[in-house]
Amino acid sequence: MNIAIILSGGVGSRMGIDMPKQYVEVEGMPVLGYSLAAFAAHPDIDAIVVAVADQWRYFVAGLAARLCPEKPVSLAPAGQTRQYSIFNALEVAARSATGDADLVIVHDGARPLVGADLIGRCLAACSAADAVMPAIAVKDTTYLSDDGTTITALLDRSKLWAGQAPEAFRLAKYLAAHRAMDAAELMKINGSTELAFKSGLSCRIIEGDPMNFKITTPEDLSNFKTIIKARKK
């Protein structure tokens, strides 16, 4: 069984608007809806769990009923951090688990241009690893600065990769890693695969998609609107 976890608990503090970015409407659809629709339409996804803040539960439930009529959608409470939202969603996903072969694929609701090919490749790659993360090679010369004003070191960009979502995991192992991690350490986790790596799970990188960007700034939202308008034309 393959279960998609979509994270929709963020507040979008960098956007400068009065609602979370994933609920901004673009061409008649909330940003979150584009991610939901992508996973609902994928033939390898059996169920979906959305991590959502309490005040948006009814909105998300209605959106899911409209976009995912043929697949079960459950809601999980958003956590204090992104990783705690994942933890909550994993506990919900585990209720539908059928065995050790079950996979979860974790995606951001504010990353609406995810393609079916990338979803499929993430799931397929989990046959040879406990965790799979799509990534883009870093192209620019990259520096390390300890104080933000002076250069401390020059990093080898040939070994640097920028992680994306969705990230796929073996459900049982990934959930066990969350349950075993100290609460204070879990609070420090920034990326989904980071926890898997720190827990000793086998982690694999696959080629990401440059179009699969996350909306974090007003410029990102503007670019997304332009792309969707162009696709509709």
From TrEMBL:
PANTHER family cross-referenced by the UniProt entry: 2-C-METHYL-D-ERYTHRITOL 4-PHOSPHATE CYTIDYLYLTRANSFERASE, CHLOROPLASTIC
Lineage: superkingdom: Bacteria
High-level lineage: Bacteria, Pseudomonadati, Bacteroidota, Bacteroidia, Bacteroidales
Xref: InterPro entries: IspD/TarI, IspD/TarI_cytidylyltransf_bact, ISPD_synthase_CS, Nucleotide-diphossugar_trans
A molecular-function term among this protein's GO annotations: 2-C-methyl-D-erythritol 4-phosphate cytidylyltransferase activity
Keyword GTP-binding: no
Organism expressing this protein natively: Marseilla massiliensis
Protein name: 2-C-methyl-D-erythritol 4-phosphate cytidylyltransferase
Keyword Lyase tagged: no
